[in-house]
Specification:
Blueprint lengths: L8 E4 L5 E8 L2 H11 L5 E8 L17 E7 L9 H19 L3 E4 L3 E4 L2 E13 L2 E11 L19 H5 L5 H20 L3 H9 L8 E6 L2 E10 L5 E5 L4 E4 L3 E4 L4
Parallel strand pairs: 2-3
Antiparallel strand pairs: 1-2, 3-4, 4-8, 5-6, 6-7, 7-8, 9-10, 9-13, 10-11, 11-12
Helix pairs in contact: 2-4, 2-5
Length: 261
């Protein structure tokens, strides 16, 4: 089992995270959940050089070759289950902000959990909460960032829809420096969230959400809704003005931007 393995390296960050570095795991989220169930540790980060069974939302396979930044964070926030989604939003804006400020790339977020560069997916977020009775016991936030990865490492059917930092920049980045920068920025936003500043954090996320105000198609449980993306509400739901009239709040779904003719 992954949870019984010893990490290659363990170290502490100046801002309170314990980082456990592994070479090859099935899934950093699964490993992090195994660690969290056996201890009460908080702010633990599990990083792997590659994942054999990486997962995205809705149990979709996440391709995780060498060179990427694949990590999961264990947190124990005192929040309600309905507030867990907020962690996905602040991690998304953390990644978008860090890539933009560090490398000068124009980044966008896509509801609810993707980060794009040049319209192609460069990062995804998977947040999972473990509950006990009516309370949140712990949360694991998984981040899959295509960093020093060649596009040829991905299946041919994905190469038109994904990108990597290496492809966009033309060189490889320092992964350790990048993860430390991401964690430091995230920790600042996380503290703000716990201080009750969610609405200002949501506004930061919306600054990267260029799809708002434009036409979108949203696929949710095999149903496709088309219309204008109006807003994202306080609970993280997407508000749409439907082509056939009326409005709709979408809780779960995949968004595709539609080009206006």
């Amino acid at each position: 089992m992954d949870s019984a393995r010893e990490p290659l390296e363990t170290y502490l960050t100046p801002f309170g995270y314990q980082i456990c570095q592994y070479d090859r795991v099935s899934s950093t989220n699964n490993l992090a959940k195994g660690i969290a169930r056996k201890s009460i540790r908080d702010h633990v980060v599990v990083i792997a050089e590659t994942q054999t069974h990486g997962r995205g939302r809705l149990e979709r396979k996440w391709i995780s070759p060498h060179g990427g930044l694949w990590f999961s964070i264990i947190l124990r926030p005192k929040i309600s289950l309905k507030e867990v989604l907020r962690l996905t939003f602040i991690m998304s804006s953390t990644v978008a902000e860090t890539i933009k400020t560090t490398f000068g790339l124009e980044t966008k977020v896509m509801w609810p959990n993707d980060i794009l560069v040049e319209g192609r997916k460069i990062c995804g977020i998977l947040t999972e909460a473990i509950t006990s009775k009516d309370s949140v016991e712990f949360v694991v936030i998984g981040v899959g960032l295509n960093a020093n990865v060649d596009l040829d490492s991905f299946p041919e059917n994905l190469r038109e829809t994904v990108t990597t930092l290496k492809h966009e920049l033309g060189y490889e980045v320092d992964l350790k420096a990048l993860v430390l920068s991401l964690l430091q920025t995230f920790e600042e936003k996380y503290k703000q969230l716990l201080q009750g500043r969610w609405m200002s954090l949501l506004k930061e996320w919306k600054n990267f959400a260029s799809f708002l105000g434009g036409r979108v198609a949203v696929t949710s449980f095999d149903e496709v809704s088309r219309g204008k993306a109006l807003d994202v509400g306080q609970d993280g739901a997407l508000l749409m003005k439907l082509d056939g009239g009326g409005v709709k709040w979408v809780i779960v779904g995949d968004v595709t931007v539609e080009v206006q003719s």
